[in-house]
């Protein structure tokens, strides 16, 4: 039991380090969270963690600001594998049709961890997007959304996708939400991972 608790604490620390070091752009430290083949999934990006670092720096230079906040976490450990689920919010500020807006998306990080050579590391991060909202920073500003564009995206990250598409990102339209086949498929993949199967 003590070993399992130590494993869960080590994984939770990696989850927390991801959020702090990513948002602070401390990339040398951020790299230590991952295994070398680690992959990151997001609405606006899917690829290796090294590519994720590169596109974050490029986005930062263009003024893109995305921040993360973490809540409670649940970790399932099976020998050298683990799945961590952590409540989170993603917040982003950007202009939408000339109006500066904040979007906040609530969901979970669903993380695939593995212990290799005695070290836990992140192999895959797949966010689950549960609900979101978009607000003008100035409450007196008038913001009119394009409902045809808004309706192209899933409910769980509709407004986040809307804002991101407005600033030029191609947003993945089939990420897991609060329910549905994408979420079911992710849970099934997590169960296979804990049984020792390949991703």
Mean pLDDT: 97
Beta content comes to 35-45%
Would you tell me which CATH topology applies?
Nuclear Transport Factor 2, Chain: A
Our measurement of the CA-to-CA distance between the termini, rounded to an integer number of angstroms, reads 27 Å
Oligomeric organization of the protein chains: single chain
Summarize the topology:
Layout: H1 2-23, H2 27-30, E1 34-41, E2 46-48, H3 49-61, E3 65-78, E4 81-96, E5 99-116, E6 119-136, H4 147-150, H5 158-166, H6 181-194
Parallel strand pairs: 1-6
Antiparallel strand pairs: 1-2, 3-4, 4-5, 5-6
Summary, kept brief:
With 199 residues, this protein is α+β, with helices and mostly antiparallel strands. Helices cover 33% and strands 39% of the residues. A six-stranded mixed beta sheet has the order 2-1-6-5-4-3.
Structure description:
This protein is an alpha+beta fold and about 200 residues long. It contains six helices and six strands; from the N terminus they run H-H-E-E-H-E-E-E-E-H-H-H. The protein is about 35% helix and about 40% strand. A six-stranded mixed β-sheet has the order 2-1-6-5-4-3. The protein starts with a helix and ends in a 5-residue tail after the last helix. The model has no long low-confidence stretch (mean pLDDT about 95).
């Amino acid at each position: 039991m003590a070993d399992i608790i130590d494993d869960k604490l080590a994984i939770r620390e990696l989850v927390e380090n991801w959020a702090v070091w990513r948002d602070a752009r401390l990339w040398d430290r951020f790299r230590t969270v991952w295994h070398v083949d680690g992959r990151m999934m997001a609405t606006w990006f899917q690829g290796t963690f090294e590519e994720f670092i590169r596109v974050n720096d490029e986005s930062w230079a263009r003024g893109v600001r995305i921040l993360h906040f973490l809540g409670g976490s649940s970790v399932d450990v099976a020998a050298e594998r683990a799945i961590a689920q952590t409540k989170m919010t993603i917040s982003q500020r950007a202009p939408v049709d000339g109006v500066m807006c904040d979007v906040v998306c609530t969901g979970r990080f669903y993380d695939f961890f593995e212990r290799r050579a005695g070290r836990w590391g992140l192999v895959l991060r797949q966010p689950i997007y549960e609900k979101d909202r978009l607000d003008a920073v100035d409450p007196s500003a008038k913001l009119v959304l394009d409902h045809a564009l808004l309706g192209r995206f899933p409910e769980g990250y509709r407004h986040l996708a809307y804002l991101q598409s407005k600033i030029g990102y191609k947003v993945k339209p089939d990420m897991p939400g609060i329910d549905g086949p994408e979420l079911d498929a992710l849970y099934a993949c997590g169960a296979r991972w804990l049984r020792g199967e390949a991703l």
